[in-house]
């Protein structure tokens, strides 16, 4: 009888421990709908759009926008340098087409690197391949708009460099992207 109670008590304590561990979500609650900024040592965007933890120490707006300009254009009249994708997709939608067309006109003779990114779901290998497809899709669109392909590099970071930490659709949607880095 004592053994059964001890076993029941042990199972109950283990269950409580597992539940407590599942509730711990770094960077915010999964149900809050908030897309928190990344933690120390990772690149990301704070609530004001300013870069956090960039390896080069710069404080540029990673999303290419100037918060003081209602047109959404970046500092110095630069277009937005980020496009987003649907889940498991590398298809350039209408909004992404507009952004890439603006970049094609703005780039002129500049070189650019297109970085493909994914959300945290899926294996590392799958996300690296999908990130490359997104970078390649953006590159092809830029080429279709007249940008010399020899001036465009592509790289995939898969899910390794999230823009936003979080375990919800809001965060995942921000992380499924291609960034143009002039």
Weakly predicted, low-confidence segments: 8-72
What is the count of β-strands? 6
Order of neighbouring strands in the sheet with most strands: 3-6-4-5
Q: Determine the N-to-C terminus distance.
A: 72 Å
The coarse silhouette is elongated
Largest sheet: 4 strands, mixed
Total helical elements: 4
Helix-strand pattern? HEEEHEHEHE
Radius of gyration: 21 Å
Give me the secondary-structure category: alpha+beta
Estimate the mean pLDDT confidence. 74
Helix share bin: 25-40%
User: In percent terms, what proportion of residues is strand?
Assistant: 5-15%
Summarize the structure.
The chain has four helices and six strands. It has 182 residues and is α+β, with helices and mostly antiparallel strands.
Secondary structure blueprint with pairings:
Elements: H1 2-23, E1 44-45, E2 51-52, E3 82-84, H2 94-107, E4 112-117, H3 124-144, E5 152-158, H4 169-175, E6 177-181
Parallel strand pairs: 4-5
Antiparallel strand pairs: 1-2, 3-6, 4-6
Describe it for me?
The protein is of the alpha+beta class and 182 residues long. It has four helices and six strands. It has helices spanning 2-23, 94-107, 124-144, 169-175; strands at 44-45, 51-52, 82-84, 112-117, 152-158, 177-181. The strands form two sheets. A four-stranded mixed β-sheet has the order 3-6-4-5. A two-stranded antiparallel ribbon has the order 1-2. Strand 4, helix 3 and strand 5 (152-158) form a beta-alpha-beta unit. The longest helix is centred in the N-terminal third of the chain and has 22 residues, at 2-23. Mean pLDDT is 74; it is low at 8-72.
């Amino acid at each position: 009888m004592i053994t059964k109670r001890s076993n029941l008590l042990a199972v109950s304590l283990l269950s409580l421990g597992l539940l407590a561990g599942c509730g711990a979500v770094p960077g915010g609650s999964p149900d809050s709908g908030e897309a928190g900024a990344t933690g120390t040592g990772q690149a990301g965007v704070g609530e004001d759009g300013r870069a956090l933890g960039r390896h080069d120490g710069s404080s540029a707006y990673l999303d290419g926008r100037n918060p003081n300009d209602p047109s959404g254009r970046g500092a110095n009249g630069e277009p937005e340098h980020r496009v987003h994708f649907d889940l498991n997709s590398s298809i350039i939608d209408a909004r992404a087409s507009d952004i890439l067309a603006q970049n094609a006109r703005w780039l002129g003779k500049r070189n650019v690197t297109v970085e493909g990114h994914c959300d945290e779901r899926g294996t590392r290998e799958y996300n690296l391949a999908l990130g490359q497809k997104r970078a390649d899709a953006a590159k092809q669109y830029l080429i279709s708009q007249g940008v010399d392909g020899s001036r465009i590099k592509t790289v995939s970071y898969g899910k390794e460099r999230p823009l936003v930490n979080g375990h919800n659709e809001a965060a995942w949607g921000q992380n499924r992207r291609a960034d143009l880095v002039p």
